[in-house]
Recover the amino acids of this structure.
Protein backbone atom coordinates (compact mmCIF):
# COMPACT_ATOMS: atom_id res chain seq x y z
CA UNK A 1 0.00 0.00 0.00
CA UNK A 2 2.72 2.48 1.02
CA UNK A 3 6.47 2.18 0.56
CA UNK A 4 9.28 4.54 1.54
CA UNK A 5 12.76 3.74 0.29
CA UNK A 6 15.49 5.72 2.04
CA UNK A 7 13.24 8.76 1.91
CA UNK A 8 14.67 11.96 3.32
CA UNK A 9 12.98 15.35 3.31
CA UNK A 10 15.07 18.42 3.93
CA UNK A 11 13.73 21.94 4.45
CA UNK A 12 16.88 23.79 3.52
CA UNK A 13 19.36 22.41 6.03
CA UNK A 14 16.70 21.25 8.47
CA UNK A 15 15.65 17.61 8.39
CA UNK A 16 11.94 16.84 8.28
CA UNK A 17 12.17 13.11 7.67
CA UNK A 18 15.44 11.26 7.87
CA UNK A 19 16.29 8.22 5.75
CA UNK A 20 13.00 6.39 6.24
CA UNK A 21 12.58 2.96 4.75
CA UNK A 22 9.33 1.16 5.37
CA UNK A 23 6.75 -0.91 3.61
CA UNK A 24 3.17 -0.95 4.76
CA UNK A 25 0.90 -3.60 3.25
CA UNK A 26 -2.86 -3.04 3.18
CA UNK A 27 -4.03 -2.44 6.75
CA UNK A 28 -4.44 0.10 9.49
CA UNK A 29 -1.48 1.85 11.07
CA UNK A 30 -1.06 4.32 13.87
CA UNK A 31 1.72 6.83 13.37
CA UNK A 32 2.71 7.95 16.83
CA UNK A 33 5.18 10.61 17.75
CA UNK A 34 5.50 13.72 19.84
CA UNK A 35 4.73 17.12 18.34
CA UNK A 36 7.44 18.09 15.87
CA UNK A 37 8.58 14.52 15.34
CA UNK A 38 8.02 14.51 11.57
CA UNK A 39 4.56 12.92 11.41
CA UNK A 40 3.01 15.61 9.23
CA UNK A 41 6.02 15.60 6.90
CA UNK A 42 5.68 11.84 6.53
CA UNK A 43 1.96 12.21 5.76
CA UNK A 44 2.63 15.03 3.29
CA UNK A 45 5.10 12.74 1.52
CA UNK A 46 2.41 10.04 1.37
CA UNK A 47 -0.14 12.42 -0.12
CA UNK A 48 2.35 13.87 -2.61
CA UNK A 49 2.22 17.37 -1.16
CA UNK A 50 5.95 17.10 -0.58
CA UNK A 51 8.57 15.39 -2.70
CA UNK A 52 11.39 13.55 -0.95
CA UNK A 53 14.76 15.30 -1.26
CA UNK A 54 16.38 11.86 -1.40
CA UNK A 55 14.92 8.41 -1.87
CA UNK A 56 11.44 7.61 -3.08
CA UNK A 57 7.88 7.25 -1.91
CA UNK A 58 5.31 4.96 -3.50
CA UNK A 59 1.61 4.77 -2.75
CA UNK A 60 -0.30 1.95 -4.47
CA UNK A 61 2.94 1.36 -6.35
CA UNK A 62 3.07 4.86 -7.84
CA UNK A 63 4.66 8.20 -7.10
CA UNK A 64 1.88 10.20 -5.40
CA UNK A 65 3.15 13.67 -6.49
CA UNK A 66 0.67 15.28 -8.93
CA UNK A 67 -0.77 11.86 -9.60
CA UNK A 68 -4.56 12.06 -9.94
CA UNK A 69 -4.91 8.28 -10.07
CA UNK A 70 -3.32 7.95 -6.62
CA UNK A 71 -5.12 10.99 -5.19
CA UNK A 72 -8.45 9.57 -6.38
CA UNK A 73 -7.91 6.59 -4.07
CA UNK A 74 -6.90 8.66 -1.04
CA UNK A 75 -9.03 10.32 1.60
CA UNK A 76 -7.03 12.91 3.49
CA UNK A 77 -7.91 14.77 6.65
CA UNK A 78 -5.15 17.33 7.29
CA UNK A 79 -4.34 18.54 10.76
CA UNK A 80 -5.13 22.17 9.93
CA UNK A 81 -8.36 23.22 11.54
CA UNK A 82 -9.13 25.97 9.06
CA UNK A 83 -12.15 25.92 6.81
CA UNK A 84 -14.03 28.69 5.00
CA UNK A 85 -16.05 30.51 7.64
CA UNK A 86 -18.56 31.87 5.15
CA UNK A 87 -19.81 28.65 3.57
CA UNK A 88 -21.84 25.78 5.02
CA UNK A 89 -20.39 22.36 5.78
CA UNK A 90 -22.55 20.87 3.04
CA UNK A 91 -21.29 23.35 0.43
CA UNK A 92 -17.67 22.80 1.47
CA UNK A 93 -17.77 19.01 1.33
CA UNK A 94 -19.72 19.09 -1.95
CA UNK A 95 -17.14 21.51 -3.38
CA UNK A 96 -14.28 19.19 -2.44
CA UNK A 97 -16.14 16.29 -4.03
CA UNK A 98 -16.51 18.29 -7.23
CA UNK A 99 -12.73 18.66 -7.19
CA UNK A 100 -12.69 14.89 -6.94
CA UNK A 101 -14.53 14.65 -10.22
CA UNK A 102 -18.14 14.30 -9.07
CA UNK A 103 -20.95 16.24 -10.74
CA UNK A 104 -22.73 18.92 -8.72
CA UNK A 105 -25.81 16.87 -7.86
CA UNK A 106 -23.90 13.68 -7.00
CA UNK A 107 -21.41 15.69 -4.95
CA UNK A 108 -24.19 17.30 -2.93
CA UNK A 109 -25.87 13.96 -2.28
CA UNK A 110 -22.64 12.27 -1.21
CA UNK A 111 -21.68 15.24 0.95
CA UNK A 112 -25.02 15.17 2.75
CA UNK A 113 -24.73 11.40 3.34
CA UNK A 114 -21.19 11.65 4.66
CA UNK A 115 -22.00 14.55 6.98
CA UNK A 116 -25.04 12.67 8.20
CA UNK A 117 -22.91 9.62 9.04
CA UNK A 118 -20.71 11.84 11.21
CA UNK A 119 -23.64 13.35 13.04
CA UNK A 120 -23.49 16.68 11.25
CA UNK A 121 -26.91 16.54 9.56
CA UNK A 122 -28.57 19.14 11.82
CA UNK A 123 -25.74 21.66 11.31
CA UNK A 124 -24.64 20.99 7.75
CA UNK A 125 -26.51 23.94 6.24
CA UNK A 126 -25.08 26.37 8.77
CA UNK A 127 -22.03 28.56 8.02
CA UNK A 128 -18.86 26.84 9.19
CA UNK A 129 -17.81 30.00 11.00
CA UNK A 130 -20.40 29.12 13.62
CA UNK A 131 -19.08 25.57 14.14
CA UNK A 132 -17.27 24.41 17.25
CA UNK A 133 -13.84 22.85 16.79
CA UNK A 134 -15.32 19.40 17.12
CA UNK A 135 -17.89 20.15 14.41
CA UNK A 136 -15.16 21.40 12.08
CA UNK A 137 -13.22 18.22 12.78
CA UNK A 138 -16.25 16.08 11.89
CA UNK A 139 -16.76 18.12 8.71
CA UNK A 140 -13.14 17.52 7.71
CA UNK A 141 -13.56 13.81 8.34
CA UNK A 142 -16.76 13.79 6.31
CA UNK A 143 -14.85 15.40 3.44
CA UNK A 144 -12.12 12.75 3.68
CA UNK A 145 -14.64 9.89 3.70
CA UNK A 146 -17.26 11.19 1.28
CA UNK A 147 -15.75 9.79 -1.93
CA UNK A 148 -15.26 6.33 -0.38
CA UNK A 149 -11.46 6.17 -0.73
CA UNK A 150 -9.36 3.04 -0.44
CA UNK A 151 -6.86 4.59 1.93
CA UNK A 152 -7.64 7.12 4.61
CA UNK A 153 -4.81 9.35 5.86
CA UNK A 154 -5.75 11.23 9.00
CA UNK A 155 -3.57 13.74 10.84
CA UNK A 156 -4.66 14.14 14.47
CA UNK A 157 -8.32 13.48 13.60
CA UNK A 158 -9.57 13.40 17.18
CA UNK A 159 -8.23 16.83 18.10
CA UNK A 160 -10.94 19.06 19.46
CA UNK A 161 -13.57 16.34 19.78
CA UNK A 162 -15.40 15.86 23.06
CA UNK A 163 -15.36 12.37 24.64
CA UNK A 164 -18.62 11.38 22.93
CA UNK A 165 -17.31 12.65 19.60
CA UNK A 166 -14.04 10.77 20.09
CA UNK A 167 -15.93 7.58 20.77
CA UNK A 168 -18.17 8.03 17.73
CA UNK A 169 -15.28 8.75 15.41
CA UNK A 170 -13.27 5.87 16.88
CA UNK A 171 -16.20 3.52 16.21
CA UNK A 172 -16.42 4.85 12.64
CA UNK A 173 -12.72 4.19 12.10
CA UNK A 174 -12.97 0.69 13.61
CA UNK A 175 -15.83 -0.01 11.20
CA UNK A 176 -13.69 1.39 8.36
CA UNK A 177 -10.90 -1.05 9.22
CA UNK A 178 -13.36 -3.96 9.52
CA UNK A 179 -14.39 -3.24 5.91
CA UNK A 180 -10.79 -3.96 4.93
CA UNK A 181 -9.90 -0.39 4.01
CA UNK A 182 -6.47 1.14 4.54
CA UNK A 183 -5.82 3.67 7.28
CA UNK A 184 -2.88 5.73 8.46
CA UNK A 185 -3.72 7.62 11.61
CA UNK A 186 -1.23 10.09 13.04
CA UNK A 187 -1.46 11.18 16.62
CA UNK A 188 0.71 12.14 19.54
CA UNK A 189 -1.65 10.39 21.97
CA UNK A 190 -0.98 6.67 22.32
CA UNK A 191 -4.35 5.55 23.64
CA UNK A 192 -6.21 7.32 20.82
CA UNK A 193 -4.37 5.16 18.32
CA UNK A 194 -4.58 2.01 20.45
CA UNK A 195 -8.36 2.30 20.38
CA UNK A 196 -8.35 2.11 16.59
CA UNK A 197 -5.45 -0.12 15.60
CA UNK A 198 -2.79 -2.31 17.15
CA UNK A 199 -0.18 -1.67 14.45
CA UNK A 200 2.13 1.17 15.37
CA UNK A 201 4.85 3.18 13.75
CA UNK A 202 6.75 5.18 16.30
CA UNK A 203 8.40 8.27 14.86
CA UNK A 204 10.70 10.74 16.55
CA UNK A 205 13.41 13.03 15.26
CA UNK A 206 12.25 12.42 11.71
CA UNK A 207 13.01 8.71 11.94
CA UNK A 208 10.77 5.70 12.30
CA UNK A 209 12.19 4.29 15.53
CA UNK A 210 10.04 1.22 15.95
CA UNK A 211 7.13 -0.53 14.36
CA UNK A 212 4.93 -3.45 15.16
CA UNK A 213 2.00 -4.40 17.34
CA UNK A 214 1.27 -2.88 20.74
CA UNK A 215 2.59 -6.08 22.31
CA UNK A 216 5.86 -5.86 20.42
CA UNK A 217 6.34 -2.26 21.49
CA UNK A 218 5.70 -3.19 25.11
CA UNK A 219 8.20 -6.06 24.82
CA UNK A 220 10.72 -3.62 23.44
CA UNK A 221 10.05 -1.31 26.33
CA UNK A 222 10.49 -4.12 28.81
CA UNK A 223 14.12 -4.36 27.75
CA UNK A 224 14.74 -0.74 28.58
CA UNK A 225 15.58 0.16 32.18
CA UNK A 226 12.62 1.99 33.66
CA UNK A 227 13.30 4.79 36.09
CA UNK A 228 11.44 4.79 39.39
CA UNK A 229 11.45 7.75 41.71
CA UNK A 230 11.28 6.80 45.39
CA UNK A 231 10.98 9.28 48.26
CA UNK A 232 11.99 7.72 51.57
CA UNK A 233 13.20 8.52 55.12
CA UNK A 234 16.50 6.70 54.46
CA UNK A 235 17.68 6.97 50.88
CA UNK A 236 21.11 5.47 51.61
CA UNK A 237 19.61 2.50 53.44
CA UNK A 238 17.14 1.88 50.64
CA UNK A 239 19.89 2.08 48.04
CA UNK A 240 21.98 -0.50 49.96
CA UNK A 241 18.98 -2.83 50.23
CA UNK A 242 18.17 -2.62 46.51
CA UNK A 243 21.79 -3.38 45.61
CA UNK A 244 21.79 -6.40 47.96
CA UNK A 245 18.67 -7.71 46.21
CA UNK A 246 20.10 -7.01 42.75
CA UNK A 247 17.01 -5.05 41.91
CA UNK A 248 18.66 -2.00 40.35
CA UNK A 249 20.60 -1.39 37.16
CA UNK A 250 21.71 1.95 38.55
CA UNK A 251 20.92 4.26 41.42
CA UNK A 252 20.95 8.02 41.67
CA UNK A 253 20.35 10.22 44.71
CA UNK A 254 18.07 13.14 44.09
CA UNK A 255 18.39 15.35 47.16
CA UNK A 256 18.48 13.94 50.68
CA UNK A 257 15.26 11.97 50.65
CA UNK A 258 14.88 10.81 47.07
CA UNK A 259 16.36 8.00 45.09
CA UNK A 260 16.01 7.32 41.39
CA UNK A 261 16.26 3.65 40.57
CA UNK A 262 16.73 2.27 37.09
CA UNK A 263 15.45 -1.28 36.72
CA UNK A 264 14.61 -3.71 33.95
CA UNK A 265 11.97 -5.37 36.09
CA UNK A 266 9.80 -2.65 37.58
CA UNK A 267 6.98 -5.12 38.22
CA UNK A 268 9.27 -7.26 40.42
CA UNK A 269 10.43 -4.20 42.31
CA UNK A 270 6.86 -3.02 42.91
CA UNK A 271 5.80 -6.47 44.12
CA UNK A 272 8.75 -7.25 46.40
CA UNK A 273 9.70 -3.89 47.81
CA UNK A 274 7.49 -4.21 50.92
CA UNK A 275 9.04 -7.61 51.64
CA UNK A 276 12.62 -6.30 51.20
CA UNK A 277 12.00 -3.39 53.53
CA UNK A 278 10.20 -5.39 56.18
CA UNK A 279 11.93 -4.89 59.54
CA UNK A 280 14.51 -2.40 58.21
CA UNK A 281 12.71 0.73 59.45
CA UNK A 282 12.91 2.22 55.97
CA UNK A 283 9.69 3.93 55.00
CA UNK A 284 8.64 4.64 51.43
CA UNK A 285 6.67 7.89 51.27
CA UNK A 286 6.22 8.16 47.55
CA UNK A 287 6.90 5.86 44.63
CA UNK A 288 6.30 6.79 41.02
CA UNK A 289 7.56 5.84 37.62
CA UNK A 290 9.28 8.63 35.75
CA UNK A 291 8.75 6.76 32.48
CA UNK A 292 5.00 7.04 32.26
CA UNK A 293 4.74 9.54 29.48
CA UNK A 294 4.97 8.94 25.76
CA UNK A 295 7.89 11.34 25.84
CA UNK A 296 9.84 8.88 27.97
CA UNK A 297 9.00 6.11 25.54
CA UNK A 298 10.44 8.12 22.69
CA UNK A 299 13.50 9.14 24.69
CA UNK A 300 14.09 5.48 25.39
CA UNK A 301 13.66 4.56 21.72
CA UNK A 302 15.97 7.38 20.69
CA UNK A 303 18.57 6.02 23.12
CA UNK A 304 18.21 2.57 21.54
CA UNK A 305 18.44 4.09 18.10
CA UNK A 306 21.65 5.88 19.00
CA UNK A 307 23.03 2.76 20.68
CA UNK A 308 23.07 4.37 24.13
CA UNK A 309 20.67 2.00 25.87
CA UNK B 1 -13.33 17.00 -19.15
CA UNK B 2 -13.08 16.67 -15.39
CA UNK B 3 -10.61 19.59 -15.33
CA UNK B 4 -13.17 21.79 -17.09
CA UNK B 5 -15.95 20.63 -14.79
CA UNK B 6 -13.83 21.20 -11.70
CA UNK B 7 -12.80 24.64 -13.02
CA UNK B 8 -16.47 25.53 -13.45
CA UNK B 9 -17.10 24.29 -9.89
CA UNK B 10 -14.32 26.49 -8.51
CA UNK B 11 -15.60 29.47 -10.49
CA UNK B 12 -19.17 28.99 -9.24
CA UNK B 13 -18.01 28.42 -5.66
CA UNK B 14 -15.81 31.52 -5.65
CA UNK B 15 -18.53 33.67 -7.21
CA UNK B 16 -21.05 32.48 -4.60
CA UNK B 17 -18.58 33.19 -1.79
CA UNK B 18 -17.98 36.67 -3.15
CA UNK B 19 -21.66 37.58 -2.95
CA UNK B 20 -21.64 39.57 0.24
CA UNK B 21 -21.75 43.11 1.50
CA UNK B 22 -17.94 43.34 1.74
CA UNK B 23 -17.41 42.50 -1.91
CA UNK B 24 -20.39 44.73 -2.76
CA UNK B 25 -18.81 47.70 -1.00
CA UNK B 26 -15.47 47.08 -2.69
CA UNK B 27 -17.06 46.84 -6.12
CA UNK B 28 -19.06 50.00 -5.50
CA UNK B 29 -16.00 51.88 -4.19
CA UNK B 30 -13.82 50.81 -7.12
CA UNK B 31 -16.55 51.44 -9.67
CA UNK B 32 -17.45 54.88 -8.42
CA UNK B 33 -14.04 56.50 -8.06
CA UNK B 34 -13.49 57.19 -11.82
CA UNK B 35 -16.91 58.83 -11.91
CA UNK B 36 -16.02 60.94 -8.88
CA UNK B 37 -12.72 62.06 -10.43
CA UNK B 38 -14.38 62.91 -13.74
CA UNK B 39 -17.16 64.75 -11.91
CA UNK B 40 -14.56 66.79 -10.05
CA UNK B 41 -12.83 67.68 -13.35
CA UNK B 42 -16.05 68.52 -15.14
CA UNK B 43 -17.96 70.39 -12.48
CA UNK B 44 -15.27 71.88 -10.31
CA UNK B 45 -13.76 74.15 -12.95
CA UNK B 46 -11.42 71.81 -14.88
CA UNK B 47 -11.64 71.76 -18.69
CA UNK B 48 -10.64 69.07 -21.16
CA UNK B 49 -10.40 70.91 -24.47
CA UNK B 50 -9.52 68.18 -26.95
CA UNK B 51 -12.29 65.89 -28.24
CA UNK B 52 -10.21 62.79 -27.46
CA UNK B 53 -9.48 63.91 -23.89
CA UNK B 54 -12.56 62.33 -22.24
CA UNK B 55 -12.14 58.90 -23.87
CA UNK B 56 -8.43 59.01 -22.98
CA UNK B 57 -9.23 59.84 -19.36
CA UNK B 58 -11.80 57.05 -19.30
CA UNK B 59 -9.22 54.65 -20.73
CA UNK B 60 -6.63 55.52 -18.08
CA UNK B 61 -9.16 55.32 -15.28
CA UNK B 62 -11.08 52.20 -16.26
CA UNK B 63 -9.29 49.55 -18.40
CA UNK B 64 -6.03 50.53 -16.73
CA UNK B 65 -6.60 51.72 -13.16
CA UNK B 66 -9.87 50.05 -12.11
CA UNK B 67 -8.91 46.78 -13.76
CA UNK B 68 -5.44 46.76 -12.19
CA UNK B 69 -6.83 47.49 -8.74
CA UNK B 70 -9.54 44.84 -9.09
CA UNK B 71 -7.00 42.26 -10.24
CA UNK B 72 -4.63 43.15 -7.43
CA UNK B 73 -7.42 42.46 -4.96
CA UNK B 74 -9.03 39.42 -6.51
CA UNK B 75 -6.46 37.62 -8.67
CA UNK B 76 -3.00 38.18 -7.18
CA UNK B 77 -3.75 36.37 -3.89
CA UNK B 78 -5.53 33.35 -5.40
CA UNK B 79 -3.12 30.83 -3.92
CA UNK B 80 -1.87 32.92 -1.00
CA UNK B 81 -5.35 33.10 0.56
CA UNK B 82 -5.63 29.32 0.50
CA UNK B 83 -2.15 28.79 1.93
CA UNK B 84 -2.49 31.44 4.64
CA UNK B 85 -6.07 30.38 5.36
CA UNK B 86 -4.74 26.82 5.69
CA UNK B 87 -7.35 25.46 3.29
CA UNK B 88 -4.71 24.55 0.71
CA UNK B 89 -4.07 21.00 2.04
CA UNK B 90 -7.78 20.19 1.65
CA UNK B 91 -7.78 21.34 -1.98
CA UNK B 92 -4.38 20.13 -3.15
CA UNK B 93 -5.02 16.49 -2.25
CA UNK B 94 -7.94 16.33 -4.69
CA UNK B 95 -7.23 14.81 -8.12
CA UNK B 96 -8.59 17.91 -9.87
CA UNK B 97 -7.30 20.29 -7.22
CA UNK B 98 -4.45 22.54 -8.29
CA UNK B 99 -5.08 23.41 -11.94
CA UNK B 100 -8.86 23.93 -11.67
CA UNK B 101 -8.23 25.99 -8.54
CA UNK B 102 -5.89 28.27 -10.47
CA UNK B 103 -8.13 28.55 -13.53
CA UNK B 104 -11.40 28.80 -11.61
CA UNK B 105 -10.16 31.46 -9.21
CA UNK B 106 -8.50 33.34 -12.07
CA UNK B 107 -11.79 33.27 -14.01
CA UNK B 108 -13.75 34.43 -10.95
CA UNK B 109 -11.28 37.26 -10.31
CA UNK B 110 -11.41 38.38 -13.94
CA UNK B 111 -15.21 38.13 -13.91
CA UNK B 112 -15.52 40.40 -10.87
CA UNK B 113 -12.94 42.82 -12.27
CA UNK B 114 -14.71 43.09 -15.61
CA UNK B 115 -18.07 43.51 -13.88
CA UNK B 116 -16.59 46.28 -11.75
CA UNK B 117 -14.97 47.93 -14.78
CA UNK B 118 -18.22 47.88 -16.73
CA UNK B 119 -20.10 49.38 -13.80
CA UNK B 120 -17.36 52.02 -13.48
CA UNK B 121 -17.69 52.73 -17.20
CA UNK B 122 -21.46 53.15 -16.95
CA UNK B 123 -21.14 55.56 -14.01
CA UNK B 124 -18.32 57.52 -15.66
CA UNK B 125 -20.16 57.76 -18.97
CA UNK B 126 -23.15 59.12 -17.10
CA UNK B 127 -20.93 61.82 -15.61
CA UNK B 128 -19.27 62.87 -18.90
CA UNK B 129 -22.43 62.51 -21.01
CA UNK B 130 -23.08 63.87 -23.63
CA UNK B 131 -19.96 62.54 -25.29
CA UNK B 132 -19.15 62.51 -29.01
CA UNK B 133 -19.81 59.03 -30.34
CA UNK B 134 -20.55 57.89 -26.77
CA UNK B 135 -21.86 54.35 -27.52
CA UNK B 136 -18.77 53.59 -29.62
CA UNK B 137 -16.47 54.84 -26.83
CA UNK B 138 -18.33 52.66 -24.34
CA UNK B 139 -18.00 49.59 -26.57
CA UNK B 140 -14.27 50.16 -27.13
CA UNK B 141 -13.49 50.73 -23.46
CA UNK B 142 -15.69 47.80 -22.42
CA UNK B 143 -13.78 45.49 -24.76
CA UNK B 144 -10.43 46.88 -23.60
CA UNK B 145 -11.46 46.26 -19.98
CA UNK B 146 -12.01 42.59 -20.82
CA UNK B 147 -8.65 42.24 -22.60
CA UNK B 148 -6.85 44.18 -19.88
CA UNK B 149 -8.37 42.01 -17.13
CA UNK B 150 -7.49 38.80 -18.92
CA UNK B 151 -3.86 39.70 -19.67
CA UNK B 152 -3.02 41.48 -16.42
CA UNK B 153 -4.98 38.83 -14.51
CA UNK B 154 -2.75 36.10 -15.92
CA UNK B 155 0.34 38.18 -15.12
CA UNK B 156 -0.77 38.94 -11.56
CA UNK B 157 -1.73 35.33 -10.90
CA UNK B 158 1.83 34.39 -11.90
CA UNK B 159 3.24 36.97 -9.46
CA UNK B 160 0.92 35.59 -6.78
CA UNK B 161 2.15 32.04 -7.33
CA UNK B 162 5.84 32.85 -7.67
CA UNK B 163 6.12 35.32 -4.81
CA UNK B 164 3.12 34.13 -2.76
CA UNK B 165 3.22 36.58 0.18
CA UNK B 166 4.73 39.48 -1.77
CA UNK B 167 2.76 38.94 -4.96
CA UNK B 168 0.90 42.25 -4.65
CA UNK B 169 4.08 44.23 -4.10
CA UNK B 170 5.68 42.70 -7.17
CA UNK B 171 2.52 43.25 -9.22
CA UNK B 172 2.44 46.95 -8.31
CA UNK B 173 6.18 47.25 -8.94
CA UNK B 174 5.84 45.58 -12.32
CA UNK B 175 2.99 47.90 -13.30
CA UNK B 176 5.10 50.97 -12.53
CA UNK B 177 8.07 49.57 -14.44
CA UNK B 178 5.79 48.69 -17.35
CA UNK B 179 4.44 52.23 -17.42
CA UNK B 180 7.99 53.55 -17.85
CA UNK B 181 9.02 50.89 -20.36
CA UNK B 182 5.92 51.64 -22.42
CA UNK B 183 7.24 55.18 -22.94
CA UNK B 184 10.56 54.00 -24.35
CA UNK B 185 10.38 54.33 -28.14
CA UNK B 186 11.96 50.93 -28.77
CA UNK B 187 10.85 47.43 -29.56
CA UNK B 188 10.96 46.51 -25.86
CA UNK B 189 7.74 48.40 -25.28
CA UNK B 190 5.94 45.94 -27.55
CA UNK B 191 6.44 43.38 -24.79
CA UNK B 192 4.18 45.30 -22.42
CA UNK B 193 0.44 44.72 -22.03
CA UNK B 194 -0.18 48.48 -22.00
CA UNK B 195 1.37 48.91 -25.44
CA UNK B 196 -1.13 46.52 -26.99
CA UNK B 197 -4.11 47.95 -25.11
CA UNK B 198 -3.17 51.47 -26.18
CA UNK B 199 -2.58 50.37 -29.77
CA UNK B 200 -6.09 48.91 -29.78
CA UNK B 201 -7.46 52.14 -28.32
CA UNK B 202 -5.80 54.15 -31.08
CA UNK B 203 -7.04 51.82 -33.81
CA UNK B 204 -10.60 51.40 -32.54
CA UNK B 205 -11.02 55.11 -31.76
CA UNK B 206 -9.51 56.01 -35.16
CA UNK B 207 -6.85 58.21 -33.57
CA UNK B 208 -4.10 57.19 -36.01
CA UNK B 209 -3.56 60.76 -37.18
CA UNK B 210 -3.38 62.16 -33.64
CA UNK B 211 -1.00 59.38 -32.67
CA UNK B 212 1.29 60.09 -35.64
CA UNK B 213 1.49 63.74 -34.65
CA UNK B 214 2.47 62.72 -31.11
CA UNK B 215 5.47 60.77 -31.95
CA UNK B 216 3.82 58.17 -32.18
CA UNK B 217 3.08 57.99 -28.46
CA UNK B 218 1.03 54.82 -28.83
CA UNK B 219 1.68 51.69 -30.81
CA UNK B 220 0.84 51.29 -34.47
CA UNK B 221 0.53 47.52 -34.81
CA UNK B 222 -2.67 46.06 -36.23
CA UNK B 223 -5.63 45.26 -33.92
CA UNK B 224 -5.59 41.58 -34.86
CA UNK B 225 -1.92 41.39 -33.93
CA UNK B 226 -2.58 43.16 -30.62
CA UNK B 227 -5.49 40.91 -29.69
CA UNK B 228 -3.53 37.79 -30.63
CA UNK B 229 -0.58 38.98 -28.54
CA UNK B 230 -2.77 39.70 -25.49
CA UNK B 231 -4.53 36.34 -25.73
CA UNK B 232 -1.18 34.66 -26.30
CA UNK B 233 0.22 36.38 -23.19
CA UNK B 234 -2.78 35.21 -21.21
CA UNK B 235 -2.45 31.57 -22.24
CA UNK B 236 1.35 31.58 -21.88
CA UNK B 237 1.30 33.19 -18.44
CA UNK B 238 -1.46 30.88 -17.18
CA UNK B 239 0.51 27.93 -18.50
CA UNK B 240 3.64 29.08 -16.66
CA UNK B 241 1.58 29.64 -13.48
CA UNK B 242 0.09 26.14 -13.76
CA UNK B 243 3.53 24.59 -14.28
CA UNK B 244 4.98 26.41 -11.26
CA UNK B 245 1.99 25.55 -9.08
CA UNK B 246 2.35 21.92 -10.06
CA UNK B 247 6.01 21.92 -9.02
CA UNK B 248 5.70 24.01 -5.86
CA UNK B 249 5.48 22.22 -2.55
CA UNK B 250 3.11 24.32 -0.53
CA UNK B 251 2.50 23.09 2.97
CA UNK B 252 0.84 25.27 5.55
CA UNK B 253 2.79 23.97 8.52
CA UNK B 254 6.32 22.72 8.20
CA UNK B 255 7.03 20.22 10.90
CA UNK B 256 10.66 19.47 11.34
CA UNK B 257 12.45 16.95 13.41
Amino acid sequence: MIAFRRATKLYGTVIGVNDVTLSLPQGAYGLIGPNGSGKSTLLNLMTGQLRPTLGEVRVFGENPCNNPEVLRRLGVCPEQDSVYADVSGLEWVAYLLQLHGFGRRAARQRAADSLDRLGMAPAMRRRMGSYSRGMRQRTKLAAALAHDPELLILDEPLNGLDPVGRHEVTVQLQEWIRRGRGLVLASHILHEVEAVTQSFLLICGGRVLASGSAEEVHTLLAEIPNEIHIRTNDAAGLARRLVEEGAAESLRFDGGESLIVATRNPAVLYARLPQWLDGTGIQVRELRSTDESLHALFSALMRIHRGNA
Amino acid sequence: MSILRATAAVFAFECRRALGWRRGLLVLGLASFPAVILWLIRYEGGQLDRPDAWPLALFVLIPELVCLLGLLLWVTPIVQTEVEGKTWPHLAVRPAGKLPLLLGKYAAGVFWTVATAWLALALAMWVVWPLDDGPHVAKVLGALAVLSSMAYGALFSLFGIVFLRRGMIFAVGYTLVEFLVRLIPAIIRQLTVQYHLQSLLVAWMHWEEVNRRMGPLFGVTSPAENIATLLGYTLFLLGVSAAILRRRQLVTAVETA
User: Anything to note?
Assistant: The longest strand of chain A covers residues 14-24.
